[in-house]
Amino acid sequence: MSDHHEVTDKAVVRIQNLHKYFGSLEVLKGVDLEVRRGEVVTILGPSGSGKSTLLRCINLLEKPTGGEIWFEDTCITDPNTNINEVREHVGMVFQSFNLFPHLSAKKNVMLAQRKVLKRSNEEAERIALEQLAKVGLSDRSEYMPSQLSGGQQQRVAIARALAMDPHVMLFDEATSALDPELVRGVLDVMRELAEGGMTMIVVTHEMGFARDVADRAVFMDEGIIVEQGLPEEVFDNPRHARTRDFLGHII
Amino acid sequence: MSTTKKYSTVASALRSFVALVAVLSLVVCVVGPTPEARALTVDKTTAQPNQSDGNQIIGGVPTRITWEATVGDDEEIKEIHLVFPAGTTLGEGANTKATVLDGLARLETPQENTITDEGTVIDFAEPVASGLLIRVEIFYVALPAESGHYTLTGRYVDGEGTERELEESPAIAVISVTVVESITQWLDEQPWVEWWNSQLFLRVFFNPQLIVASVPTLFQGWLRSLGLVLVGFPLAIPIGLAVSFLRMARFRIVRFFASIYVNVIRGTPLFLQIYIAFFGLPFLGVSIDSYLLGILVLAMNSSAYLAEIFRAGIQSIHKGQFEASASLGMNAVQTMFSVILPQTVRRVIPTATSEFILLYKDTSLLAAVGVMEQMMFAKSMVASSGNMTPYIVAAGYYLLVTLPLTKIIGSFEKKLAAAEGHSSEPPDKKKKRKRLQKTEDAPSDSFAPPHDNFRRGNGLMGPKI
User: Does B425 touch chain A (CB under 8 A)?
Assistant: First the structure.
């Protein structure tokens, strides 16, 4: 377990009895999850278990069918909530990077700062360069996404999310699309971020990362949370057969 | 119908111009100093138009000059010396003839005339009596080649043998010989042209003189056609974009009406749409300038095609781009204009350019309702010459636009493919990227042109109506 950062009691994200249907297919079957400030939570599970859907519900990229999701003091499942205001504070990193291909690395990081936070061009540029430096890409700020490797693109995507000063970062299989030799650079950035106290919800297949960095591991299968706890407990002494089965296949 | 309307406006403009000139000359006559009674008053000086298809006088080309004067009270005229403007030349068979008129009656007037480059002398055997009109016609004389206003000067000898200066004649407006006229004249004399034109096919489709004559005339038609498409197409872009948004709207009813717009316009011939607009609107009492109406119909037609091109372009953008924008808190408008459209523009440029080419060619359909454009110019030249050559020249003008554009599309598509294929990467990384792209969710999937049953023709130059 990593106790080099502080986990507070204050919940950043609170999910209650979350249900999600895709047509008649029930993907989430009543999920409860609370993530506190400074906490790093990894969500594990076989594909199709609903972990990505759960993550995408948190910033409403998927619309929940039932249940409630709270972000700090805002109920985001309330139709009257302006979701864009919530999304400003919820950073997300995608499996396929989703950089804006027509903008340079720096401009990728600047765009939402300018449009959403209404920062001045100078301030947005300064922050963009700062964030790019943090992810080790100072020398790539003027590169177009197509000129960057996958790992570099993903790090730009992380910088882009961080530039918005998010209260929580969601990672949706951020390293799954990368060649093995490029995974490390991205994981290092995520590790540093965790050590810096960022609240993170990480859907991943990187067991090493889940074990070393996370405060809590959540194992999902077939739309429910099967078990959760300290990473050591979940990995070394899984209580459920399904967890054991999954870990047996992975490790 | 609009053709006649157009001509009648031209005619009325001409009429008012003539009236204005008449009024002005009247004013000059009234206000100008009353000339002392002269023995010979010059009434008019004109030259016969010698332009092949026009009503102007070209310098350097033989024409006929007519000069008229009235003999004053109690005067007689024995000789008239007319001096030509400097630079006047004589054509073959140049001569002078004077006629004396008493009212409408033509009097027998024996005379001895001489003519040179400098002028002409009319020597009457019997002095011309007072009150009579003397008309001097000078045949096959070429006024100076340079354009300008030329007058005839000179002197006359009265019955008592006194020589007096003639008053200056009214001016003759002369235009300089055009390049086209001189080339045409030159061609007329070439033996190879004679042989060329003796071949039926070559004469009917590639008549050299008509090619030379068509190029400048059809240039005006070319400009007008280009004007139609250069105004119509940019107008179609925002309409098309708006319709494409409506096609993707959240509400089914909005999508329904947008798709009706698109399908009706794309499912019916532009020719029919032009007829409905040009013959239908007058029934409603709506009268729009035919050129403007033509632009509007073209823009409306093209907007439906562009709407589908834009929609396909927007929908080809990976949904990850929308999600990434949303996750950063950007609203739909910000996402559309900062993220989606800039990427769409690049992808649709080739297809939109071929749409531009199609629309440019479609301007020719407006000839059917009398809008003056390339086809109309060619048609009227064909009608007056009885030769197909102007159509061939018109084809050349169309190709002047479409061929380079086709080429540009080609090179742009290549560039686009290169950009999406990440060619700017260092070579050692290229291999990895290729492998990577198979596994990853293809963030920059290439743009597939819309499957389009209504597409006019198969390619850029596809068959039309």
Answer: yes
